[in-house]
Write a structure and sequence with these properties.
It is a single chain. The chain is built from 19 helices and two strands. By secondary structure, it is mainly alpha-helical. The protein folds into four domains: 98 residues, Serine Threonine Protein Phosphatase 5, Tetratricopeptide repeat, CATH 1.25.40; 65 residues; 69 residues; 142 residues, Alpha Horseshoe (Serine Threonine Protein Phosphatase 5, Tetratricopeptide repeat). A two-stranded antiparallel sheet has the order 1-2. α2 packs antiparallel against α3 and α18 packs antiparallel against α19. 23% of the residues are buried.
């Protein structure tokens, strides 16, 4: 038995080393396998959201595409990828349109920044790339749109008047020598002095435009926009269709209360475009209605806190903008009654009458209170009238006039007080004019 101990020990060492090696292999397998990749999806998703918040949309989209490849449940990643692709496409188109607008206003630096911003989001966006190549190149360039059966030699003949200059066509556009070009290929060519250059022709993309209009008629705004963006935006019908889609989108956003989004949609539509002013009018009305609702809610809160004057002021402001609002009218009537009632309880009858003078005839409580105030003021008027008579008898004409004026303020229909004031003033004038 002792003879076999060294052999047994060696075998045990070999077995243990083999197990250790297999454990490393298992660990490597798990680290490189689908379980490990799926576990990273949550971290990459969080990073994608951070990038999107920071404005790095292209990098965020790459992260979501990675999540889409490695995640076990791909539905959420697919949705996020599609959403972000749409957001990027919309931002690219917005930058491109703003760039064109700035270029038309001869603001070249601002135009270039917008074109570069579009390319930052989508480096393959050809309209912006062509603008950068043709408008901001130090070398004078022109564009040419190929027609059926065009080859570099025929392009050279049409543009330069010399087939031998085909090498310029191939070199500037990385084309194979004298192969037939795909119709509609946009070529960048050098400008040569005193040689006419054929104007680029834009073929009407009838099929996609018709499909986009069909989607728009079915109120599928996203589908219509996707199809419209696949067509060259330099074509006027395409621009008009995109503007129309933005207007319909703004209308839908207004109806759903998404006013900030509606403003952004309208900002992409040039001034003077058909129906833009009408849509802006709808947005203005919707914003006024929103502000009216906010003010009316605040007026109700002030009423519930028994701040009746503040509630009346807010409700009155609402009625100026929305005179037909029954809620504002009812709240104003009730708040006015409470303000008048507070003056009445503190025996400020003149103030109460002043407030109730604007009361709604249909508010029954205000009508009753107004009659009560009238009776109280009539009694006060009579008391002040008698006090004035006493002062008059005691030859204190100024005090008598003051009392009778108060009586008139309480009861403007008190004829005797008015007559006595006139008589007392004439008598006072005679006394003061005596030598």
């Amino acid at each position: 038995m002792k003879r076999w101990l060294p052999v047994i020990a060696c075998m045990a060492m070999v077995i243990l080393c083999g197990c250790a090696g297999s454990m490393d292999s298992v660990s490597d397998f798990l680290s490189a396998g689908p379980w490990w990749e799926a576990a990273q999806a949550s971290h990459i998703s969080s990073r994608a959201r951070e990038l999107e918040t920071g404005g790095e949309l292209a990098m965020a989209l790459d992260h979501w595409r990675l999540v889409q490849r490695i995640s076990i449940d791909q539905a959420k990643a697919t949705r996020e990828t599609a959403r972000l692709e749409g957001k990027i496409a919309e931002a690219v188109q917005s930058h491109y349109q703003h760039g064109l607008a700035e270029w038309r206003r001869k603001k070249t630096a601002a135009a270039r920044d917008h074109f570069l911003a579009a390319l930052h989001l989508d480096p393959d966006f050809q309209p912006a790339l062509n603008q950068i190549k043709t408008c901001f190149s130090s070398f004078p360039l022109a564009v040419y749109l190929s027609t059926p059966d065009d080859r570099p030699s025929t392009v050279a003949k049409n543009v330069f008047g010399d087939e031998e200059k085909a090498f310029l066509v191939t070199w500037f556009n990385d084309l194979p020598k004298n192969e037939t070009l795909i119709p509609g290929t946009l070529l960048i060519l050098p400008k040569l002095e005193k040689i006419p250059i054929k104007k680029a022709r834009i073929k009407k993309p009838a099929n996609r435009l018709a499909a986009a209009r069909t989607r728009l008629a079915a109120n599928d705004l996203e589908g219509a926009m996707t199809l419209a963006r696949q067509v060259n935006p330099a074509y006027p019908d395409v621009q008009a269709l995109i503007h129309t889609i933005h207007l319909k989108k703004a209308t839908a956003q207004i109806e759903s209360g998404q006013f900030d989004d509606a403003r952004q949609s309208l900002a992409t539509v040039p001034d003077g475009f058909t129906d833009k002013d009408a849509t802006l009018g709808k947005l203005t009305i919707a914003l006024q209605q929103q502000q009216t609702a906010i003010d009316l809610t605040q007026a109700r809160k002030q009423f519930d806190r028994e701040h009746y004057q503040q509630s009346l002021d807010l409700a009155g402001a609402v009625l100026k903008d929305a005179p037909d609002s029954p809620d504002a009218r009812d709240l104003a009537a009730e708040a006015r009654y409470r303000v008048a009632l507070d003056h009445f309880n503190h025996k400020r009858f003149l103030k109460a009458r002043e407030v109730l003078a604007k009361a709604d005839d249909g508010h029954e409580a205000s009508t009753v209170l107004a009659e009560t105030v009238r009776i109280q003021l009539a009694e006060q008027a009579q008391n002040h009238y008698r006090n004035g008579v006493k002062y008059f008898i005691n030859e204190d004409l100024k005090s008598a006039i003051a009392e009778w004026e108060i009586a008139l303020a309480c009861n403007p229909d008190h004829e005797k007080a008015s007559e006595n004031i006139d008589n007392a003033r004439r008598l006072l004038d005679k006394i003061e004019s005596m030598p």
